[in-house]
Amino acid sequence: MYRDHGLSKDEMTSAEQSGNTSLRKGVSTPPGEVDTLVENAVFGADEVREHSREKIRQFASAQDVVLASVDGLYRAAGKGLYTGITIPAINIRGITYQVARAVFRAALKDRVGAFIFEIARSEIGYTAQRPGEYAACVLAAAVTEGFRGPVFLQGDHFQVNSAKYNSEPERELNSIRELVREAVSAGFLNIDIDASTIVDLGKSSFEEQQKGNCQVTADMTKFIREIEPDGITISVGGEIGEVGGRNSTVADLRAFMTGYLRLLGPDVRGLSKISVQTGTTHGGVVLPDGSVASVDIDFKALKELSRAARKEYGMGGAVQHGASTLPDEAFDLFPQADTLEVHLATGFQNIIFDSPYFPKELLDRIYRYLRDKYAGEMKQGDTSEQFLYKTRKRAFGDFKKELWNMSGENLRGIGNALEERFSLLFRKLKVAGTVDLVSQFVDY
């Protein structure tokens, strides 16, 4: 299904005659050609937008860029066939094409094959990026940078809103189902269901605490299996501890998996991984001066959870969220703790907004706008710095066109800093040189 976007014979001949060597050798396409397509894929009117997205898929397929599932790779980890690496899952909130290009450049330098692009349910809203747009930007970036091989797109935190669930449960779940359907249609073959928001810690037993989470996650897993493309097993993730809440334990994991597997039944493929809470918060804890407080992650618990997930349930291991603002030395510890996957977002956002290449006039205008439009979100006792740090993510949607239209010099400066950061994280998480590992265990 995801290879059926190849160029026709006439289109291939035309591309070869025009010197578009990416279609013949997998080297990068002249950027201007793809730049126009991806801008139209994001900002074009309906017909132009859909045509541009289709052309991007065609170019990607011709360059052997294929959207894929990490399920096989994670099942291999569950069997002990490899260890000691942590897969980075990268949330891109804005200027997605340019940021993804920086990711691919870093990956190509160190032959990195094991990395994921993702976007959360909440981010889709405030960044104004639907799954089809996000997929087009990532594929276009792969084509421009000359990347070849599987590309992993992930729906991150397809999360149950507890307030909406408590008032109208079926309506909330239908909203998530429709988002899953949209994402899968766009090529997101990795979906993280997050019903940790309805874990009830007020209950006396672990089983009762996880009961609602088990039910929703099992139902969503069945739904995903019903709609997944023929011949593809979507990687499905679950979550047992809400990020920012009480730290997860092996007892939580066992209670959840017992209930989940009972509801799922023996004939349905289950989870490939489990997200846990071990001490982080999304975006970090912001201090009054706008800096981020240090965080004490329980790496011992993380290792115990990963071990139990693998040995007892055949999953790839445990997943850590909210890690991008940690100090550099912390990232060396994730592979040592057998962490399967780590989610990274706000740190990249900070590089963009805090870059000396980010136009000061635009940043000042953004901050004035945020103070005015979102004043009601400022919590009592927050400083202006804390408010702006927590709110500026909204600028990715509200100032989408202005960010996209920053000068080439600005975008290159920001992109180079991001590339350097991605390279550092790839090395620390031990995914350098994983192209062959991915080829061994991922079907594409």
Describe the structure.
The chain has 444 residues and is of the alpha/beta class. It folds into two domains: 67-351 and 406-441, Alpha-Beta Barrel (TIM Barrel); 359-404, no CATH class. The protein is built from 22 helices and nine strands. It has an eight-stranded parallel barrel with strand order 2-3-4-5-6-7-8-9, surrounded by six helices. The chain starts with 8 loop residues before the first helix and ends with a helix.
How would you briefly describe this protein structure?
By secondary structure, the chain is an alpha/beta fold. It has helices spanning 9-17, 22-25, 31-43, 46-62, 71-78, 96-109, 121-126, 131-145, 162-167, 169-186, 206-209, 211-227, 250-264, 299-313, 333-336, 346-354, 360-373, 384-391, 395-398, 400-404, 408-428, 435-441; strands spanning 65-68, 87-91, 116-120, 149-159, 190-194, 235-239, 273-276, 318-320, 341-344.
CATH architecture of the largest domain: Alpha-Beta Barrel
Uncertain ranges = 1-28, 282-287
Oligomer: single chain
**Fraction of residues in H or I helices:** 40-55%
Mean pLDDT score, rounded? Answer: 90
Arrangement of strands in the largest sheet: 2-3-4-5-6-7-8-9
Q: How many DSSP-defined strands?
A: 9
Q: What value does the Rg take, in angstroms?
A: 21 Å
* CATH fold annotation of the largest domain: TIM Barrel
From the helix content, strand content and strand pairing, which structural class follows? alpha/beta
First CA to last CA: what distance?
Answer: 10 Å
Count of folded domains: 2
- Describe the largest sheet: 8 strands, parallel, barrel
* Beta-strand residue fraction: 5-15%
The total of helices stands at 22
CATH superfamily name of the largest domain?
Answer: Aldolase class I
CATH hierarchy, class of the largest domain: Alpha Beta
Question: Could you say which overall geometry the principal axes of the C-alpha atoms support?
Answer: globular
